[in-house]
Amino acid sequence: MPGNASYGKKAFKRSRSHFADRITADGRDGWPVEAGRYRLVVSLACPWASRALVVRRLLGLEDALSLAVADPIQDDRSWRFTLDPDGRDPVLGIRYLSEAYDARETGYPGGVSVPAIVDVPSGKLVTNDFQQLTLDLETEWTALHRPGAPDLYPQALREEIDEVMDGVYRDVNNGVYRAGFASEQGAYEEAYGDVFARLDTVSRRLAGQRYLVGDTITEADVRLFTTLVRFDAVYHGHFKCNRNKLAEDPVLWAYARDLFQTPGFGDTVDFDHIKRHYYQVHTGINPTRIVPLGPDPSGWWEPHGREKLGGRPFGEGTPPASL
Predict the structure, then answer these.
(1) How many other C-beta atoms can be found within 10 angstroms of the C-beta atom of residue 111?
(2) What is the pLDDT of residues 8-52, one digit of tens each?
(3) Is position 241 annotated as part of the catalytic site?
(4) Phi-psi category of 306—alpha, beta or left, where left has phi over 0 and alpha has psi -120 to 50?
(5) Which phi and psi (to 5°) does residue 280 adopt?
(6) Is 27 left (phi over 0), alpha (psi -120 to 50) or beta?
(7) How confident is the model at residue 109 (pLDDT cuts 50, 70, 90)?
(8) Looking at 38, 46, 255, 279, which residue is catalytic?
(9) Which residue in 146, 166, 296, 316 has the most C-beta neighbors within 10 A?
(10) Three-state DSSP class for 300?
(11) Active-site option among 38, 96, 101, 177
């Protein structure tokens, strides 16, 4: 998960990413786009990391940007590579993501977060800036995109996309965390209100259009999806965002299913990792560490009917190849 948490006035606040270097076509931060040079480290449990997974797949960057998947259960050194043989990432040769952080800045006092991009030759962390990372994959890595890759951040729509994403981030993506980690009733109720006010606004917007901005999938849809796909499994109960389930909002439920069934979205989701991380790591919220058996994920494959609204999921492009 990104950033560090603080609890001023008993309200959850997310810190900004400490390592905000950018990998760009011209290499102006010292990190030029280069196929095979970098490794993306994610947790399949983390909604912020899942953004990068979706975008990487939609743009066809799998061969250019390799992938490391951390264990969904952290220990006191945070994200670890215990899913790999001998507990080491086979490319970076490290047991913990913190080793790449230490290689970049010795004694870094902050938290170890995903998504993160690591420079393979040096073993150093390049960036953990989850807000900028996917935008750069979309705009700076274009020379390495697959033929037919969609434009997820079209120039003509960026102002509107940014505006929509700002509200979604503040009230939904981060809002569920503000509710879940609140340690005072008033802070919880404020966050709860923000979550559902924004979801109601988004639901009204999507009632008449297939996607959030324009008639194709954009970065805005990616960012909303990664929270929606976790909503009923985690945020409704674990984070007490329980006014209603996603499945009880006909518009948002159909929209989320539409994206889930689109190549690049649902095929990056792992409900087992999601549930085990939240319910077993957040012991302050769930001290028993019991992982619920539900909800039944088969509903994600039910027909959604959103085709009637038109829209072209990939614009002039094509879907990614089947896994």
Answers:
(1) 16
(2) 456 656 555 689 999 999 999 999 999 999 999 999 999 999 999
(3) no
(4) alpha
(5) -105, -25
(6) left
(7) confident
(8) 46
(9) 146
(10) helix
(11) 177
